[in-house]
Write a structure and sequence with these properties.
alpha/beta, 17% strand, 242 residues, Rossmann fold, globular, 7-stranded parallel β-sheet, 7 helices, binds NADP nicotinamide-adenine-dinucleotide phosphate, 7 strands
């Protein structure tokens, strides 16, 4: 029997990278996953690959109308929600002095407002003993040039995990953050170069694989982590630990 047998999970941004790797792992462990993403083609492809244990709900994780549709999709399954992984997000690499007001808003919206609103909207559907995993990053606890707004947003997501861990504890819901280091996901050559260059600062001397983050998220989502809440699990090859 799989670790998540019979459970229902939502993964925002589940069509590529860490989100898709986590969706694959959750399905392999017996869950039904509802995945989201903005691009219809990518969503259709991911759902086709994942098979009958996956449902796609297209939209932007910061859009309240999309989040309401996601809640409806969860309710239509009729089993409540056991796992919520707010993975959708991403950043821009812009020197501090060149960041525009729109870029500040965009990066904060994608990485902080979106997870906040996602949890707030889906909270009524959470089952007792559900698990929420909020995507943070090593950027929240390291100074990385050009990532100021992104780092602040991810630090906000980590802080949110602490507050929600307390606010939702009465319902038996656990809330944790996951903080990946340099993970090889992007198809953008500039981002790939940034991630690969980061390997020089990592004790394990390599970038991580999305599947290695998925394994950590699975642990936090599962009953194996039944006494863990409010924490931040780093999956960074030791980058921020030594
Ligand atoms: P990725 O390969 O670019 O995949 C991002 C996924 O999220 C895609 O499915 C994308 O689909 C979806 N997405 C992006 N923005 C969205 C939005 N506003 N609403 C709904 N879906 C959205 O990214 P990744 O590298 O796996 O990163 C996933 C998360 O991990 C992000 O929050 C990122 O900040 C964080 N992270 C990544 C690393 C790393 O080194 N890769 C390290 C630390 C933290 P659409 O484009 O179709 O929407």
């Amino acid at each position: 029997m799989g670790t998540l047998e019979g459970r229902t999970a939502v993964i925002t941004g589940g069509t590529a990278g860490i989100g898709l790797a986590t969706a694959r792992r959750f399905v392999a462990e017996g869950a039904h996953v509802l995945i989201t993403g903005r691009r219809a083609g990518a969503l259709d492809e991911a759902v086709a690959e994942l098979g009958p244990s996956a449902t796609g709900v297209r939209g932007d994780a910061a859009d309240p109308a999309h989040l309401a549709a996601l809640l409806t999709a969860v309710r239509e399954r009729g089993r409540g929600l056991d796992v919520l992984f707010t993975n959708a997000g991403g950043g821009t690499h812009t020197p501090f002095g060149q960041v525009s007001p729109d870029e500040v808003d965009d990066v904060l919206t994608r990485n902080l407002s979106a997870p906040y609103l996602t949890v707030q909207t889906l909270a009524p559907a959470l089952n007792e003993h559900a698990s929420i995993v909020l995507m943070s990053s090593i950027a929240a606890t390291a100074g990385l040039p050009g990532l100021g707004v992104y780092s602040a947003a991810k630090a906000g997501a980590r802080a949110l995990a602490r507050t929600l861990a307390v606010e939702l504890a009465g319902r038996g819901v656990r809330v944790n953050a996951v903080s990946p280091g340099y993970i090889d996901t992007s198809i953008d050559p500039d981002v790939r170069e940034f991630v690969r260059a980061g390997a020089a600062t990592i004790p394990l001397a390599r970038v991580g694989r999305p599947e290695e983050v998925a394994a950590a998220v699975l642990f936090l989502a599962s009953d194996d982590a039944s006494y863990i809440t409010g924490s931040d699990l780093f999956v960074d090859g030791g980058r921020n630990q030594v």
